[in-house]
């Protein structure tokens, strides 16, 4: 009898060890407080998570909302791990700068200086490539474009080689709800963050550099920023967006 119990225990241990690392990854997003400001951060790891960008559905119509994205993924047996707005867009919801979706460029890169946050150079491009994630200053990207299956251009850069954007002011009164993305030095980890209270650029950039320890980070947008994170029960509402970035996960999802 003792031998039978031991054999079953050994079998159970073997089966447990054989499970893939992603079998029960837990919530992709978590709460974090830095310098007294609350944030929600969502982490992805290259080759483990299906991170992608969406713009239009199979019918050619703008996806635009988290609800439509969820319905679209459900048709393929998947659900949203997390999703947020992927960058700045024009009134027609089309990307302001470079956008690559599933290997196809749907909007060209913009390298000129201009008004607004997007044109506050240096700005940059977040790329999901064959070997990992990267954030590259836009003019350097244009001069030598890397291979990207998905990419989004936005601006300004928040952290550049471990340093904050040179135009950020610590005491700036310009505060908004903001979201962005940072990438680890080895390109294997990307962390998306959204502030849960209004912050200025300096504070938001320091989150990525000093709390998340990421050497490169890119601003995605402010004011319209929002997050869908079923694993933590969060579903921000609002008007239709342009590009959406997030993860697609196998199965019906925690809310179904």
In short:
This protein is an alpha+beta fold. The protein has helices at residues 2-18, 66-74, 138-143, 201-211, and strands at 29-34, 37-45, 51-54, 78-85, 99-101, 104-107, 124-128, 133-137, 150-154, 157-160, 163-164, 178-183, 189-195, 216-222, 227-229, 234-235, 244-250.
Please explain how this structure is put together:
This protein has four helices and 17 strands. The termini are far apart. It has 256 residues and is of the alpha+beta class. It has one domain.
Features:
five-stranded antiparallel sheet; 4 helices; alpha+beta; 256 residues; disordered N terminus; seven-stranded antiparallel sheet; globular
The tally of helices reads: 4
* Radius of gyration of CA atoms, rounded to a whole number: 20 Å
Structural class: alpha+beta
Oligomer: single chain
Name the poorly predicted regions. 1-26
Terminal CA distance: 42 Å
Major beta-sheet overview: 7 strands, antiparallel
Q: What is the tally of beta strands?
A: 17
Return the string of H and E elements: HEEEHEEEEEHEEEEEHEEEE
| Helical content class | 10-25%
**Overall pLDDT confidence:** 89
